[in-house]
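Reminder: ligand-aware prediction takes two inputs, not one.
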Amino acid sequence: MTTRLPALVVGGGPAGAVAAIALAQAGVEVQLIDRQSGPHDSVCGGFLGWDALAALGDLGLDAHLLGARPIQRLRLLADGRHLELPLPYAAAGLSRRTLDEALIGRAAQAGVVIRRGRAVRAADPAERSIRLDDGEHLKGDALFLATGKHELRGLARDLARYREAPCVGIRATLPGGADLAGVIEMHLFDGGYAGLLLQEDGSANFCLSVARDRLSDGVPELIQAIMKEAPHLADRMAGKMPHSFEAIAGVPYGWRAAANVPGIFRIGDQGAVIASLAGDGIAIALHSGASAAQAYLRGGADVAMDWQEEWRRRSRRPLAIAEALRHGAAGPWARGMLMQLLRRVPALGAQAALFTRISAPRTGGRKSVG
Ligand SMILES: Cc1cc2nc3c(=O)[nH]c(=O)nc-3n(C[C@H](O)[C@H](O)[C@H](O)COP(=O)(O)OP(=O)(O)OC[C@H]3O[C@@H](n4cnc5c(N)ncnc54)[C@H](O)[C@@H]3O)c2cc1C
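Here is what comes back for the chain with flavin-adenine dinucleotide:
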């Protein structure tokens, strides 16, 4: 038997949660399905830019009340050099465990029917239906696809024309340090970067992104090799391997969804994947979820393809700038030039941070730190 509903949201990360909240607040009957049964970590740096903070504020969520640590500066370390730059607006560090839980809680308050611990196994785009792990079928007038970094059979992202080798993401928790207060610290090395920031419990979130071809021998070997190239990072890790880590392979930075499936809104990382060093993925997920829900509320499922095309257009410039920065930071020559340039003209750092944003600057009432 198939249950029919107006809107189905697959995935309860920032994109799916926000879409579901907006739909439920407008009175639409909506179900959100997420395969995780409760609070969980996810491969993410936990950096919340000013635009993400403002979008959370729109939902009545104050990240600082959730324990987020304020961040005003970017510390860059590469090839034995380091520099510190002001961010254009105040940002914050918060674990995804806490952020995602707060968003799911908000969705429940808004009246979303939340089904956790249930994996969607496959989708039928023509029917706009999904099959859950126990064989149950659900059909939606519209399907909001928010599975983030994970592909759903039947609606996998079309990566056929993605020309690069996708990247690998790794996350672990490290002991925090007083010198991390107020900063997002980024260590640049060949093929990628590692980011560190303080999260709500005072520990440090350590997240790295690296070209997949560097992972030939396994994660511990990769981290050992990176520690040799980034001695400051090795110091911070006291030369030790994290006790445990999460990893994700196949992150297609720079990819954007084309509008080709009627009735399907691809949001968050299913719609556009910005290079993680821009620290804007969560904001894009929040904005895309809200924007897709508003489009549905205005025009119904029929506007999904138009919305997707518009989102593809809107995300083009921020993604392209973030890709240029990612490629520049990944190679020794351009990395050296980048560090020199930023040392001479520190304001360029703030400009780059602004240009990788998908939304107009909104500071959620918080002050510029520039
Ligand atoms: C290494 C790395 C570091 C990053 N650091 C940052 C950062 O510091 N700041 C920032 O803004 N962005 C960062 N990003 C990007 C950010 O993590 C993503 O852009 C963001 O999480 C996308 O949100 P989403 O809701 O689309 O997907 P996700 O957050 O991935 O959520 C997807 C949800 O879908 C669920 N799901 C998946 N498949 C199924 C299924 N079949 N059935 C049911 N549920 C399913 C999952 O359980 C999950 O809850 C980083 C990315 C990487 C790779």
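DSSP finds nine helices and 15 strands in the chain. The pocket of flavin-adenine dinucleotide is lined by residues 10-16, 33-36, 42-47, 119-120, 146-150, 152, 169, 207, 209, 251, 268-269, 276, 279-283, 285 (CB under 6 Å). We will return to this case in the review session.
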